[in-house]
Amino acid sequence: MERNYAVDVVKGLGMLAIVTIHTNPFRNMSFAGFSGATIDFILDTLSRFAVPFFFMAAGYLFGQKAVREPLRTLHLKKYIGKLAKLYAVWQIAYILYDVCLIAARSVLEKTEFPTAVAAYFGAMHPLKLVYYSVGNSGYHLWYLPSLMACMVVIFICYKYKAMKGLLWASVLLHGVGLFGQAYSGLFAVSFPTRDALFFGLFYTTLGFVFAQGNIGWIRNRRAAKANYIIWILAFSLLQLAERAILVGWFRGNPGDYFVSTALLVIVLFLAALHRPHAGKDSIWAAIGSKSAGIFVIHVLVINGSHLALLLTGYERVAETLAWNLLFTPLVFVASYFAYEFLQRWKGRLLSFRWVTAGAPRQRRA
Predict the structure, then answer these.
(1) Taking residues 327-354, what's their average pLDDT?
(2) What is d(CA 27, CA 33) in angstroms, rounded to the nearest whole number?
(3) pLDDT by residue (tens digit) across 16-65?
(4) How many whole angstroms separate alpha carbon 129 and alpha carbon 141?
(5) 98, 230, 257 from 233: Cα distances, Å
(6) pTM, whole model, 2 decimals?
(7) Which of 56, 74, 275, 339 would be 293's cystine partner, CB 3.0–4.6 Å?
């Protein structure tokens, strides 16, 4: 099947939204009578479509494979293998960053480095590290094991022709998961719900079902572009109102997803399916096709930037208006080029070909 460039565009914008969530622009400042915390709340809330859309897009693309040919175990192994490799490499990268940070603190604060490192690794819980990515700086990497788990469940249900049951089960689990999010002010569950079971499974299953079903009507119906824009704006505002009410009035957790999030993401996906060539030659489509690289590296760029300010004594710069305006887009751009640089040079760095590249060839006798 041909590539859906509109999905790539939304993924590119979604990646910018994820960077915005993690940089928290304006949170610790105020200007012109506006509270920075309020601005950050609005930006953070409007950005919450991103991770659900990534889950849904992954499920859709996996479902397209099943449309072309029956899914086999080999397909799943290749898919899981790529994600597992990406996850393992970047978990190690973030652990190494943490160890270097501990070493720096040990020198500055004159503490015992071995003791600090032992405490760091001793606090890690293997299951929480692997499933929730809790215990090091790579907190955002939870998405990768969650996506792997979702695809395994979908593959099994697909093989046993139980996708309809899985869809309804995922809706139910997602509903329960809301009470670990902003709805915790009404009734709080005692377990985390930002994971594969309560969060990712619903969206990946929905994407897979979209790919499997007859979606020709989406492209054929005469839905104006303006109609999608109106619905996207309406559900974005509804998400903002839903979060404000649940957090402000009912004192729930800020939350990562809401009821309106599902409505917003579904409309976004329908719009992308309706106009698959929208933004084909745009920079956002190019970025969206390589969003995984920005995703894994951007937190390292954020942490490294704040560490540089701390070591140079310029921490107050982070409180300026210029920093809060520019930091998020600069992290986004820097993450893109940093990962592109790593991709280009990783082959040479991991081999000795660059050492012998200029060596003269020996003639055969």
Answers:
(1) 82
(2) 14
(3) 999 999 999 998 887 767 788 999 999 999 999 999 999 999 999 999 88
(4) 10
(5) 40, 5, 17
(6) 0.91
(7) 339
